[in-house]
Amino acid sequence: MSSSLLTFSGHQFLRQRLVLSILSGKHVKIDRIRPEDKNPGLREYEISLLRLLERVTNGTVIEISVTGTALLLRPGVISGGLVVHDCPPSRSIGYFLEPIIMLAPFSKKPLNLTLTGITTDEDDLSVDLLRTVTLPHLQPFGISDGLELRIKKRGAPPGGGGEVQFLCPIVKQVKTLNFVDPGKIKRIRGISHAVRVNPQFSNRMIEAARSILNRYIPDIYLYSDVYKGEESGKSPGYALSLLAESTTGAIHCAEAISQAGVAPEDIGLRATRALLSEINRGGCVDRRHQTLVLLMMVLGSEDVGRCRMSEPTEKTIQFLRDVRSFFGTSFKVVPVDSSNPECTQLLYSCYGTGYINANRTLA
Amino acid sequence: AQSLASSSRKGKRKDWIKLIYASDLTPAEVLHGKAEGDKEEDVDDFFTIKHKSDVGEVEALDKGKEPIDDVELEKWQDEELLESIRGLFITGEDSG
């Protein structure tokens, strides 16, 4: 079995390696996890993630060394079904949901996952962006019917107290992607929310965002999402999440979160300027969703998938390297327009592995 | 690997395939080039000095989104730049 064991070092890029291991069925060993740290080994949230992965699969064996600086994962089958999990307050729900979204379409049974914890924070995608941006990124691959994220309660850091329900259908195989026309931005949507603070904050963020965006297109709808009482979690906070959709269905997003001593107007402007910066980068895929799209391209049917995107992020570069280790697939990454040195966009293409969901129960 | 980094900095275009699959650079080095302050290490030395970056630095979290670069965003206060991206919207001219 040694041929199917892959070894990595360090705590970085842990989530993508665990996902690739479970999908490919290859065992993975990760050592040197924070060996020099004052508090060495895996963190509370990483242990929690491993538990969650154990719950959505069947037969997965996870061994953690005594010091917590090494772990071995022997993946089982992705079982799906009804799962409930409490996310610790050290990371938001987005940290846990991102890898789950990559795995869930290949379950045995459709996943119905309830997660509780922090719904929006500075480090990971908020549940609003996961719902409005991440899930639509799966649509071109044929994963859409019954795909849903319900935000039942909001929970701002540090207390949390939010709750979401993620429903994911299963697929037999994902479609090959051919997405090379970014189109033009036709609409802008946004969700502004404020919990346990003056509800006017939400409108103030929207007004600030409109002061910049109104010049471009008329189709702008910024929604003020109000949660009261029990549904608003344990801590005060507010945020503005924005997305821009193009005529071909390309989506770019940005968000800004409340900070102590910063006016809601400035949060609104921050989110808006970040969105313009993303729109300016262009491409067919939002930068934070490069790895999700590339993964689905690798798993696509045995044909050449192509996608136009901006330059890879650090995470994407390592992801491409890790994909080659697990699946043996290399991408071709070339400039879209080699005659124009101003154009930084790249064309990513690969030959799909023809991944078939063998876990699926035949109905 | 160092020559690769410098050549990519000089050259107009990065060879992404080579940088991603055939170099020893870390992802951060691929994007931003090798850190300038790094001293050449004597490989023949029996003892190797631990890199400063290995100890005591703020840990890089496995994040879903990169932090917003506020300095980078300041440029969007410029009216000309705001106008320059009009072509990316359906209402804009097709000039690009």
TrEMBL record, chain A:
InterPro entries: RNA3'-term_phos_cycl_insert, RNA3'_phos_cyclase_dom, RNA3'_phos_cyclase_dom_sf, RNA3'_term_phos_cyc, RNA3'_term_phos_cyc_type_2, RNA3'_term_phos_cycl-like_CS, RNA3'P_cycl/enolpyr_Trfase_a/b, RPTC_insert
Acetylation in keyword set: no
Coiled-coil parts of chain: none
Keyword field: Nucleus, Ribosome biogenesis
Domain RNA 3'-terminal phosphate cyclase intervals: 7-333
One BP annotation, GO: endonucleolytic cleavage of tricistronic rRNA transcript (SSU-rRNA, 5.8S rRNA, LSU-rRNA)
Recorded GO MF terms: RNA endonuclease activity
Every RNA 3'-terminal phosphate cyclase insert domain range: 180-279
GO cellular component term of the entry, any: nucleolus
Keyword Secreted: no
Superkingdom field: Eukaryota
Compartment(s) of residence: Nucleus, Nucleolus
Family as reported in the entry's similarity comment: Belongs to the RNA 3'-terminal cyclase family. Type 2 subfamily.
NCBIfam families assigned: 18S_RNA_Rcl1p
Protein name, as recorded: 18S rRNA biogenesis protein
UniProt source species: Macrolepiota fuliginosa MF-IS2
